[in-house]
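Workshop exercise sheet. Pairs work together: one partner reads the sequence aloud, the other fills in the structure field after running the prediction. Swap roles for the next sheet.
Pair: D.N. / O.F.
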Amino acid sequence: MGEPPAGPPTRTLPYTLVITALVLALTAAALAALALGSVRIPTADVIQILTGNADPSPYRTIVLDVRLPRVILGAAVGAGLAVVGTTLQALVRNPLADPFLLGVSSGASAAAVSVIVLGVGAGMATTVTIPAASFAGAFLALLVVYALAREPGGGFTTTRLILAGVAVSYVLSALTSLILVVSARADHLKEVLYWTLGGLGSARWDMLALPLTVLAVGTALLIALARPLDLLLVGEEGATVLGLDTARFRAGVFVLTSLVTGVLVAHSGAIGFVGLMVPHAARMLVGAAHRALLPVAALMGAVFLVVADLAARTVAAPQDIPVGVLTALTGGPFFLWLLRRGRAREGAPA
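Structure field:
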């Protein structure tokens, strides 16, 4: 079985201080994201626009209709992916678990691309069909990875889990490419390529209700399930002895995390490594107890993705880089470091 995710046995900082600092960081990141870009807007003007005290101007349209929906979607996606990553690491007791690495995001992407290219439910694709397809794809991908990685005794190893996730991701990526080739439409290719790399440029007010609702409900449910998630950290046998039906619990939480991931991916594309990096940073601040960990992970994920998207909009302005490219550039080295650390702890040569 892989090394279980763990954190400091005691909190290194007061919990209220951590939450307050993260809320302030998210506020500062949001203001910076609203002010900076190809058009720079003074922060004072941004605050006046948000409070309704500014006169009508082009700045008002940029802030309220273009940047604010993007910031809100980025915060929601970052928070959701961080919460899902934290939960998956507890479910499979492996610090390398992540919606992207386990093929969950790839499953959601493949299903959503199929809907886009095939034109299924074209009249309601944005609000119903793509999120529904993404959820189904995410859930099926997670089930396949779980089945492939599970050993006869019921445990997991880091190698089996990652290999299963990579294999499923490759198959789904090939399926996505096949669908695009068969489609043979240039507009599909450009749209889907940007979407599969992960981006927030399509954010609009009318598309925020579903991801925000799913995020709020999903996070609340997972926080309510904090004790069973904590029990899984002590091991399969220990959790069973303490009264947890691990098979039934895992199945239910797999459905919930797939739903959250599918809906978020349907609106942002596949953004990788947020769910891998953020939980580790959150545990360093508040420990491994999930009732405290999940809210901190959500706030940290929101801050991280808002800042990453700001960088994606500004480093090559006016070119808009897909934010998934930047998160991969950050997360890839982090993943290799975790893998190397895990091998060192097992006593294997690095």
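Discussion prompt: The radius of gyration is 20 Å. What would you look at next?
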